[in-house]
Design brief:
The protein contains 14 helices and 3 strands. By secondary structure, the protein is mainly alpha-helical. Helix 4 packs antiparallel against helix 5, helix 8 runs antiparallel to helix 10 and helix 10 runs parallel beside helix 14. The longest helix is centred in the first third of the chain and has 19 residues. The chain is elongated, with a radius of gyration of 21 Å.
Length: 299
C-alpha cells in the first residue's frame, strides 16, 4: 500500500512539498512553480513522467508566446524540484527528465537569456500579409492581429484578452489586463495609450464577443508560424512585432515617457532593450497595408 501511495503522487504534490519546505525560494521560482502546479501538468503522476511529456510542456509554453529562455527557467526549477522530491519518498524518473533537458538544450528548444534586435523588414511583412490574404482557409483575421501587434506594442496574449468594456476611444487608451510582470502573475492591470493606427483597427473589429480579438493565442501563433515558415523567413517571432512597435515610436522621436504609456512599462529605463533605433521617422508612413487591414474588416 505504501508503494501505491508513493506512485500516486503528482507533480502538484511535489511542488506543494517543495514550497512548504523551502519558503526562502525566490519570487521568480515560486511564481514559476505555482504556475506549473496550477496548469494541466500539475495533475501528471511523477512516476509516469517521460521525455515526451516534458517536451510537450515546453511546446505548450512556447505556444503561449513564452520565450525559449523563459521556458528554460520554468523547466529548470521544475526538474530541480522533482529531483528534490525523489529523495523524499517520491518515485521520479530523474535521469529521464535530465536527459530531456539536455536534448532540449542541444536542439535549441531552450535558450539562454538574450536581448534580441531582430526586426521585420517591410518586404518580410509584405510577403507574410500577402500570403495571408491569398489563403482562403485562414479563418482568423491574422493580418489584422499582426498589424495591431505592431501599432499597439502589445503581446499576443494581451491582445486576445482586450475587452470592449475596457476601451476609452475618446482618450485613446485601453486597459490591458494581467500584463506580464516579473512578480505578479494576475491582477497587473495597466491603462495603455493607443496609437491612431491601433485605435482604428480596434474600431474596425465587429462586436461579436466581450473580447475585441476573441481568438486563441495558440491558434494565432501557430498560423503566424505556418505562414512565416512557408515563406522561408528565418528567426522572426511574433513577439518581435511588439519590439518593432516600440522601436517605431522611438524612431519617430517620441520620448521614453510617451513610449512607456503605449508599451505599458512602469519604468522608462526598461525600454532600452527594445530600442534599436536605426533611422529617424516613421518606417510605416504611407505603407499600403495600414488602411487595408482596418477597412477590410466585416462589420
Amino acid at each position: 500500500m505504501d508503494f501505491v501511495a508513493k506512485s500516486d503522487k503528482t507533480v502538484s504534490d511535489a511542488i506543494i512539498a517543495r514550497l512548504a519546505a523551502h519558503q526562502s525560494l525566490g519570487r521568480s521560482a515560486i511564481q514559476q512553480l505555482t504556475w506549473i502546479k496550477e496548469s494541466y501538468f500539475g495533475n501528471k503522476k511523477v512516476c509516469d513522467l517521460t521525455m515526451e511529456v516534458l517536451l510537450e510542456l515546453a511546446d505548450f509554453m512556447l505556444a503561449e508566446e513564452r520565450l525559449p529562455q523563459t521556458v528554460a527557467g520554468y523547466l529548470t526549477i521544475l526538474v530541480k524540484t522533482l529531483d528534490w522530491a525523489s529523495r523524499r519518498t517520491f518515485i521520479v524518473p530523474v535521469a529521464t527528465l535530465r536527459n530531456a533537458m539536455s536534448q532540449m538544450w542541444e536542439d535549441e528548444i531552450l535558450a539562454r537569456s538574450e536581448e534580441r534586435s531582430r526586426r521585420p523588414t517591410l518586404d518580410e511583412l509584405d510577403a507574410i500579409l500577402s500570403a495571408i490574404s491569398m489563403n482562403q482557409r485562414q479563418r482568423i483575421p491574422l493580418a489584422t492581429v499582426i498589424l495591431f501587434a505592431i501599432f499597439s506594442c502589445r503581446r499576443l496574449g494581451e491582445i486576445c484578452r482586450l475587452r470592449w468594456e475596457d476601451l476609452r476611444p475618446e482618450a485613446k487608451e485601453i486597459l490591458v489586463r494581467d500584463m506580464k510582470h516579473p512578480r505578479k502573475k494576475k491582477g497587473n492591470n495597466v491603462w495603455c495609450k493607443l496609437t491612431d493606427e491601433a485605435l482604428a483597427i480596434i474600431l474596425s473589429m465587429p462586436k461579436v464577443d466581450e473580447c475585441i480579438f476573441p481568438f486563441n493565442p495558440a491558434s494565432v501563433g501557430t498560423a503566424w508560424q505556418r505562414h512565416r515558415d512557408r515563406l522561408g523567413i528565418k528567426d522572426l517571432r511574433f513577439h518581435d512585432l511588439r519590439h518593432e512597435g516600440i522601436t517605431r515610436l522611438s524612431e519617430m522621436g517620441k520620448p521614453a515617457a510617451f513610449v512607456a504609456k503605449h508599451s505599458g512599462h512602469r519604468n522608462g529605463g526598461c525600454l532600452y532593450r527594445y530600442e534599436h533605433v536605426e533611422v529617424e521617422g516613421d518606417k510605416f508612413a504611407g505603407w499600403a497595408w495600414t488602411p487595408r487591414v482596418s477597412e477590410d474588416q466585416p462589420k
